[in-house]
Design goal:
single chain; 156 residues; alpha+beta; Aminopeptidase; 7-stranded mixed beta sheet; 31% helix; 33% strand; globular
């Protein structure tokens, strides 16, 4: 596999990522939220600006020099030392290759070693068995579920 790295999000990387992004109908079709993704400069700019916040750290998952995913730590609480992990990959071409596993391990290492977090939460859509498997593979423990999501936590 090509070398995977994380780079802090920039406006340019965000646009490069979303130019090749595709919604996954296998996950969202039954949720009533599936729409074919259409790249829109203004919407991507607005999304990028929404990600720049004191309570989150956003990385682009890079393969060689191309952004193929996004992984973030959000709702960072420096008092409780807790946050939540979020990840999504660009399209089916980069799924099922172990990239999500590598990226999650890297961002967890950052959360625990660099940010000093003690607990990281995550969730996965009920239907997204691949995401659930990756969360469990990197050490998350299942804690709860509702009609839409399964919820996980990992502690250090």
């Amino acid at each position: 596999m090509d070398r995977i790295s994380l780079e802090p999000i920039t406006r340019e990387l965000c646009h490069r990522f979303y130019k090749g992004f595709e919604n996954d109908p296998a996950i969202y079709m039954d949720m009533g939220t599936f729409k074919t993704y259409i790249y829109d400069v203004e919407k991507v700019d607005k999304y990028f600006e929404s990600q720049i916040s004191k309570d989150r750290v956003v990385f682009m998952i890079m393969r060689i020099e191309e952004p193929i995913g996004e992984v973030k730590l959000k709702y960072i609480d420096n008092i409780k030392k807790e946050c939540s992990l979020g990840i999504h990959l660009q399209n089916d071409v980069v799924k099922g290759l172990g990239i999500g596993t590598i990226a999650e391990r890297m961002v967890l290492d950052y959360a625990f070693k660099e940010l000093g977090m003690k607990k990281v939460y995550a969730d996965a859509v009920q239907k997204n068995k691949r995401s659930q498997h990756v969360l469990e593979k990197v050490g998350f423990q299942f804690v709860n579920e509702d009609d839409m999501f399964k919820y996980y936590v990992i502690e250090r």
